[in-house]
């Protein structure tokens, strides 16, 4: 019988069984500490940041349209910003004119990486697209970036 299988204590448990039980109790304590102490009385939280008001669209309206992607100040004139996780590139070719494009290069479906020098650039193979209309400025891509409908409301830019 190895040391971890030696019988211990009044119930003749093995050392391995005893240590497994102690580990389970420790895990239960840690998990209990992660639980919520929400009393369910609707009281505002006393720690962890400010209370969030329970206002908004309870009817479940079209949240994608209402979600702001960027502000107009975030998009430089003559440049743009790649918002890959939101699925759009936003450009501002001239002051106050905002355009949206797909962030996927039409050559081999690589994500475009930046907007610089008046072009939307894909560093996979060097394709460059116009910030004005998405047309190809340098290959190997032969097709323009597809447009994405965006809207500007005040200083907020969102998908249309």
TrEMBL record:
<keyword id="KW-0001">2Fe-2S</keyword>
<dbReference type="InterPro" id="IPR036922">
    <property type="entry name" value="Rieske_2Fe-2S_sf"/>
</dbReference>
<keyword id="KW-0408">Iron</keyword>
<keyword id="KW-0479">Metal-binding</keyword>
<protein>
    <submittedName>
        <fullName>Rieske (2Fe-2S) protein</fullName>
    </submittedName>
</protein>
<keyword id="KW-0411">Iron-sulfur</keyword>
<dbReference type="InterPro" id="IPR017941">
    <property type="entry name" value="Rieske_2Fe-2S"/>
</dbReference>
<feature type="region of interest" description="Disordered">
    <location>
        <begin position="37"/>
        <end position="75"/>
    </location>
</feature>
<dbReference type="InterPro" id="IPR005805">
    <property type="entry name" value="Rieske_Fe-S_prot_C"/>
</dbReference>
<dbReference type="Pfam" id="PF00355">
    <property type="entry name" value="Rieske"/>
</dbReference>
<keyword id="KW-1015">Disulfide bond</keyword>
<feature type="domain" description="Rieske">
    <location>
        <begin position="67"/>
        <end position="159"/>
    </location>
</feature>
<dbReference type="InterPro" id="IPR006311">
    <property type="entry name" value="TAT_signal"/>
</dbReference>
């Amino acid at each position: 019988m190895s040391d971890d299988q030696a019988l211990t204590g009044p119930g003749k448990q093995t050392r391995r069984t005893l240590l497994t039980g102690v580990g389970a109790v420790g895990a239960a304590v840690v998990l209990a500490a992660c639980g919520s102490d929400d009393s369910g009385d609707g009281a505002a939280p006393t720690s962890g940041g400010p209370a969030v008001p329970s206002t908004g669209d309870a009817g479940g309206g079209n949240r994608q349209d209402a979600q702001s992607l960027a502000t107009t100040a975030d998009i430089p004139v003559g440049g743009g910003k790649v918002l890959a996780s939101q699925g759009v590139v936003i450009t501002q070719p001239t002051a106050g004119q905002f355009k949206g494009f797909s962030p996927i290069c039409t050559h081999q479906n690589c994500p475009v990486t930046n907007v610089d020098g008046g072009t939307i650039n894909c560093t996979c193979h060097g394709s460059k697209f116009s910030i004005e209309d998405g047309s190809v400025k340098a290959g190997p891509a032969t097709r323009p970036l597809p447009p994405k409908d965006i809207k500007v409301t005040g200083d907020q830019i969102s998908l249309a």
